[in-house]
Amino acid sequence: MPDAASVVADAEALVSRDRLIELCSTMVSIPSPTGDELALAERLAAEMTAVGLSGQVQPVVADMTNAHGRLTGSGGGPALLLYAPIDTVTVGHVEDDLPWAGPELRDDMVPSAEVRAGLVIGLGAQNPKAHGACVLAAAEALSASNAPLVGDLLIGFGGGGMPTNRRRPDLPDGHGQGCGRLVDLLRPDCAVIAKTGWAISWEEVGLTWFEVEVGGTHTYVGSRHLLPYRNAIADAGHIVAGLERWFPEWAEEHRSGLVEPQGVVAAIQGGWPHMPAFTTASCKFWVDLRLSPRTTGQEAAAAFRAKVEELANEIGASVEVRQTLVIPGTTTSPDADVIRSSIRCWEQLNNAEHAPIRGTSGATDANILRALGVPTARVGLPKVSPDKLTVDFQLGMNAVDVDDMQRLTRLLIRIAVDLCGVNA
């Protein structure tokens, strides 16, 4: 019977650049904004079925949809889930994305793939589509090479993975809804989530959201000097500016382990754009405050409220704070099998000592997996090298190097064989 090294070699030999380009381009060209993943999930299920992975779709709510498959082992080993989300945070339409995503809808911001100089470019090409393509390519290669795994290899593609509330009343929220449903269905013993960052990670931040409402006086510019006057927008501006100065202090105070949790004021609303002559009685803004795994949502809410009240008291403003969401940060023990195996395989592939990425503040469905009791490692693609392409935030998510995809796919194969085991 073959040993693990030969099983890996046989599977890696079947990983082709052309197939990775095909998979990633196909996924990019099927729109899948949060809550609208049905078409992509159906295509992924069909691709899995075609290569013996028993692909299926799993409805979540409305058109939010997961896809999953399985490479059945001989029995007696752990069930490993290779997982990637499939939804994009922006949509690719002018009416949905502009002007907030930029002054124009660039070619990389639409769901249409372009292959150029070893790169795949298009909406979500790197995050999350290339990660999903690598998960599928790794499972395909193991299936096609008849890898004699002991444990089951589970393949999961989750809808509703982005940290976003519904953008239309008929759509559901994201926040890992699809991932939670997949865990309930598949019951994995451990998981590897493919998400940006070329190193093994065993913990990440959580997040809590706040809505802050600042009170003011509804009046008329012509009466400003004659009637009671309190400008809610001006007061909100003072509080916003103070919070933006405070967020780096929060990050430094809670920096520990692999994380450095950040905060932002992300949106603001108040007044009538068509009536600049009249002030508003209310101005609202929304905040994302990231959480170390060692900070609870309750602790964060207390600190945030205290800071907002301090800033409001400086100017005598009226303010109300509402906490609207808490997703705790999570940790898997570095001694867990999935972490030790992932690091071991990373070091073998790279012929280098592994060093984790520290100071992170990104949250993924790894939090959902860990919160449901699944020991989870995270590893993914780096951003495109600046030698090949200069990227901003959007292009960093929308462009991927095929060489990096090959490397990640090989790593996922190695982890699957190492964790699931082979019949010897």
Q: What does this protein structure show overall?
A:
It is elongated and about 90 Å long. Strand 1 and strand 2 form a beta hairpin. The mean pLDDT is 97. Helix 1 (4-12) runs antiparallel to helix 12 (402-420) and helix 2 (17-28) crosses helix 5. It has twelve helices and 15 strands. The protein has helices at residues 4-12, 17-28, 38-50, 94-97, 125-144, 177-186, 232-253, 297-315, 337-350, 366-371, 393-398, 402-420; strands at residues 56-61, 64-71, 80-85, 114-116, 119-121, 153-158, 190-194, 203-204, 206-215, 263-270, 282-291, 319-327, 330-331, 376-379, 399-401. With 424 residues, it is α+β, with helices and mostly antiparallel strands. The strands form four sheets. The protein has a six-stranded mixed beta sheet, with helices on both faces. The protein has a four-stranded antiparallel beta sheet with strand order 10-11-9-12, with helices on one face. The chain has a three-stranded antiparallel beta sheet with strand order 4-5-15. The chain folds into two domains: 4-203 and 330-420, Zn peptidases (Aminopeptidase, 3-Layer(aba) Sandwich); 206-327, 2-Layer Sandwich (Alpha-Beta Plaits).
